[in-house]
Specification:
The chain is mainly α. The chain has helices at about 1-25, 30-55, 60-80, 85-105, 115-135, 145-170, 185-215, 225-255, 270-290, and strands at about 175, 180-185. The protein is built from 9 helices and 2 strands. Strands 1-2 form a two-stranded antiparallel sheet. The longest helix is centred in the C-terminal third of the chain and has 30 residues, at about 225-255. The termini are far apart.
Length: about 290
């Protein structure tokens, strides 16, 4: 199991580096690689969600999966063609949500209000939050730096939390959320915060080095030094990311499953791997828009 986990992690990092390089070096259409990844996360995550909750009928399930398959490509295409992708995405969400609600109103295929809430939840959790990842990918300024920061926060928070918890839990065994995720410790959570701050600093200096090569510096309008803004985003991102991880653990515990899937050997499913990314993407998007980083 450990070997599978390490191999999957290496492949994951290699793919991210290739996608990041493609985005950095290819003008205009370089973002399409990450969009494909986020679309896959949206669809597979939705399938895993329904596999966990089980009770949603095929009709509502199909509508939610169709939404998750549509929303990221549509948003990305609008943005790459120079149009605003947010309004069309919102309108598409409303249309799909109405269809799901109508199924409940007429009790089509056994649909009811419980299955409707779950179907809408899948659309929001997997589809809308994958769209947020794509929105970070299509920021009009500093999008490469934003994507780099987003993934580094998730990776280093998780790694620092795991190593710190594993090393120190013998002396500091206090549980972070024993009813939701018994293996997570307070000291591991603190380690995750340190990892998030390290991710912020690392992302800033990596981007600084990349910008020296291309002559494309950060666009920045905040009163804080840029490296401090990155560090703060890293710290808050670690909090948000760990909250996202606990949220996914809560869903799995309520559904009585250990992993959301098995598509990623040693890591479980897509939602097991990218749950934190969903939540961190919202923070990075808002942070970069506010700081104009």
């Amino acid at each position: 199991m450990k070997n599978k986990r390490y191999i999957t992690s290496v492949v994951y990092v290699v793919v991210l580096l290739l996608l990041l390089t493609f985005k950095w070096l290819v003008a205009d259409w370089g973002a399409i690689g990450f969009d494909a990844l986020f679309c896959a996360i949206s669809v597979i995550g939705c399938l895993e969600f329904f596999r966990a909750v089980k009770i949603v009928p095929l009709a509502q399930r199909g509508v939610s999966i169709a939404f998750c398959a549509t929303i990221v490509p549509m948003f990305a295409l609008c943005e790459m063609l120079g149009a605003d992708g947010y309004l069309p995405s919102f309108l598409v969400l409303i249309v799909y949500a109405i269809v799901v609600v109508v199924f409940a109103l007429v009790s089509f295929d056994g649909s009811n209000w419980n299955t409707t809430l779950l179907s809408l939840g899948a659309m929001g959790y997997c589809g809308v939050l994958s769209l947020t990842c794509s929105a970070v990918n299509h920021l009009h300024e500093n999008s490469t730096a934003a994507v780099l920061l987003m993934f580094l926060i998730v990776m280093l928070t998780d790694s620092f939390a795991y190593v710190t918890g594993k090393t120190l839990k013998r002396w500091l065994p206090y549980k972070l959320a024993p009813k939701i995720s018994p293996n997570k410790t307070v000291v591991g959570g603190v380690g995750g915060l340190i990892g998030g701050m390290a991710a912020g600093v690392a992302a800033y200096y990596l981007w600084y080095g990349m910008s020296m090569v291309t002559g494309d510096p950060l666009s920045y309008s905040s009163g804080l030094p840029a490296v401090v803004a990155f560090l703060l985003l890293g710290f808050v991102g670690a909090v948000v990311g760990q909250a996202g991880d606990l949220f996914e653990s809560y869903i799995k515990r309520r559904c009585g499953i250990k992993d959301s899937g098995n598509i990623l050997p040693g890591h479980g499913g897509v939602l097991d791997r990218f749950d934190s990314l969903f939540f961190v993407s919202v923070l990075v998007l808002v942070g970069f828009l506010l700081f104009t980083i």
